[in-house]
Amino acid sequence: MAAFVEPHFDAWSQGSGNMTVVDKVPPEMLHMVHPHWNQFPPMNPLWHSILGFAIFMLGMISMTGNGCVMYIFTNTKSLRTPSNLLVVNLAFSDFFMMFTMGPPMVINCWHETWTFGPFACELYAMLGSLFGCASIWTMTMIAFDRYNVIVKGLSAKPMTNNGALLRILGVWAFALFWTLAPLFGWNRYVPEGNMTACGTDYLTQTWLSRSYIIIYAIF
After folding, report:
1. For residue 13, is pLDDT > 70?
2. Domain extents for the chain?
3. Which of 16, 29, 122, 126 has a CA positioned 20 to 30 A from the CA of residue 200?
4. What secondary structure does DSSP assign to 117-151, as a single string?
5. What DSSP string describes 74-133?
C-alpha cells in the first residue's frame, strides 16, 4: 500500500516546487494576506478534498439537527418556555453558522484557495465571528439559568419570557459590537491558514490589533 501511495505524493511534492500557500490567492486579495503565510507550502490536494468533504458532512448534520430543533419548538406550544428560548437561539445561531460558512468553505476547498474576493472574505469572517460569539454567549446564558435553578432551587426567581428575550437581545448586541469593530479599524478580517477561509487578524503585532484579540478572547 505504501509503494502505491508514495509515487502520487512525490509527484505532487515535486510539482509544487517552491510554491507557497499564498501563490493561488487572487491578486486583488494579496494585500490582505499576512507575510507569515508566505513560508508555508501549498496543502496536498487530497487534504483539500478530505477537508471539503468533512465540512460538507458536518454542515448537513448541523443544519438538519438545528433545523429540527427550531421546527419542533415553533410547532409545539408546550416547549415554548423561557429556558427553551435560549436553546432555540443557540440552534438558530449554530444553524446559520454552518449555512453561511459551510458552502463557501467547500467551494474554496475545491479550488484550493479563496475564490470570492475581498468583500466576501470580510463578510464570511464577520458572519463567523457574529454567530460564533452569539453561540458562546447563549451557552453562557443557558449555564447561568441552569445554575440558578439547580443551586437556588425553589427559592430561585423564575426566568420569564421577557427576561429570556432581553438576554437574547443582549447576546446579539454584544456579538454585533465585536463583529463590526474590525470593519471600523479595530483589527481586520483577512485570509488565513490554507487560504480557503477568512477570519480575524491575529498575526499583526500592532497594539491596536493585539488589543482587540486580547479583549475579545477575555470577553
Report:
1. no
2. 45-104+122-218
3. 16
4. HHHHHHHHHHHHHHHHHHHHHHHHHHHHHHHHHHH
5. HH-GGG--HHHHHHHHHHHHHHHHHHHHHHHHHHHHHHTS--SHHHHHHHHHHHHHHHHH
Amino acid type, 192: E
* CATH no. of 45-104+122-218: 1.20.1070.10
Are 114 and 108 contacting, i.e. CB atoms less than 8 angstroms apart?
Answer: yes
Q: Give the three cell numbers for residue 201.
A: 487578524
Alpha carbon 100 to its chain centroid, in Å, reads 9
User: Cell digits for 169?
Assistant: 437581545
What would the grid cell of residue 17 be? Answer: 516546487
Percent of the chain scoring above 90 in pLDDT: 80
pTM recorded for the entire structure: 0.86
Which three cell numbers, joined as nine digits, stand for 22?
A: 499564498
Alpha carbon separation from 94 to 15, 70, 169, 173 (Å, rounded): 40, 11, 16, 17
